[in-house]
Amino acid sequence: MLTITQQIEEIEQVLRKTPHHKATNGFIGAMRAKIARLKDKELETSSKGGGGVGYAVKKQGHATTILIGPPSAGKSTLLNLLTNAESKVAPYAFTTVSVIPGMLKYRQAYIQILDVPGLIEGASIGKGRGKEVLSVARGADLLIIMTDPKRLNFFETLTKELYGAGIRINKKRPDIRIEKLLSGGITIRSNFKQDFDQETVKNVAGEFGIKNAIITLKEKVTIDELVDVFTTRITYKKAIFVVNKADTIKNKFTRSQDYIYISAEDNKGVEDLKEIIWNKLDLVTIYLVEKDKKPSKENPIIMKHNDTLDSVALKIGSEFRQGINLAKIWGSGAKFDGQEVPLTTKVVDGMMIRFI
Ligand SMILES: Nc1nc2c(ncn2[C@@H]2O[C@H](COP(=O)(O)OP(=O)(O)OP(=O)(O)O)[C@@H](O)[C@H]2O)c(=O)[nH]1
Ligand SMILES: [Mg+2]
């Protein structure tokens, strides 16, 4: 019996020999789907064994972020600067050997930051503590990908490792709808011209055991993106790219489109970084106004973008929720002071709310 890794390698070998054109797309789709399914299976079996000692962390706070980067990028130095944690810092590689959590308080929000061992090429196939680190990353809300000026190429290396581990960064899930049916075979609808034919979609679906479904492709996608939506292992994460040790180069702290330059050692650029983390997390501060009190910013509550007033009420308590059906709002999001709105209204940063 071949191991899962060996089976994947065999199919990949076949794929490398297969020319890419319209006539082979159906076959390529099926093979890619087969690989994706094997990887799903691999993840299932490996996660049963647990993440290993020191890799099970409890998510705490309003959001969780993780510091990912090559050894000695300064991840632990940054964690210690941003939070109350004391993670060991040293000039040699693999100083950190487990998950060290810390809590950053920013604008009334508690943002958990996880420091983990350095990631190297081959992490997604188990090099270093790669698999454990990548599995922690799957649970985070935001990835802070960090390297230093001498190793900018690591942004690409790490993006590839994340991809290999089924983590897609700064990408939306492709707009493909799969409606499973009990009979009737596969119907494919697409408003866009795709580079593959209907047979390819059928092959991919079949590989995942789907024989009856309406599959709607609402945008143009690649075969890989098509396979992704069938795959349980795939997760979509936000990421920011940070270059640490900016103190070692000229033109320090230029904020480029793509990277943020900081120096964790000199505490430079770090305030900007916090702001960027906050913005990326889509957290929203709202203020609770008590009965008979004037609207003020005294009682802040942290919520997420797209949350409704209903979820705010539920957060206060399910009993509290039962007693209310309207709210008055002031400030951001209100058309006028004290506007009465239904609980389906979405929260806006800075909104003051009194439940009625
Ligand atoms: N010049 C400079 N050195 C830094 C900076 N931040 C960290 N360092 C140094 O870089 C070395 C590694 O720092 P760590 O914080 O241990 O790096 P790490 O990414 O946690 O490393 P691992 O745990 O081994 O993956 C230490 O000698 C730090 O003093 C910085 O902003 N500038
Ligand atoms: Mg470290």
Shape: globular
Q: Please describe the biggest sheet, giving its number of strands, its sense, and whether it closes into a barrel.
A: 7 strands, mixed
Task: Please count the helical segments.
Answer: 10
User: What order do the helices and strands follow?
Assistant: HHEHEEHEHEEEHEHEEHEEHHEEE
Backbone CA Rg: 24 Å
The fold-level CATH name of the largest domain is Rossmann fold
Query: Average pLDDT value?
Result: 89
Total discrete domains? 3
Q: Considering DSSP H and I runs of 4 or more, what fraction of the residues is helical?
A: 25-40%
CATH class of the largest domain: Alpha Beta
Tally of DSSP β-strands? 15
CATH architecture verdict of the largest domain: 3-Layer(aba) Sandwich
Residue stretches low in confidence (pLDDT < 50, at least 5 long) are none
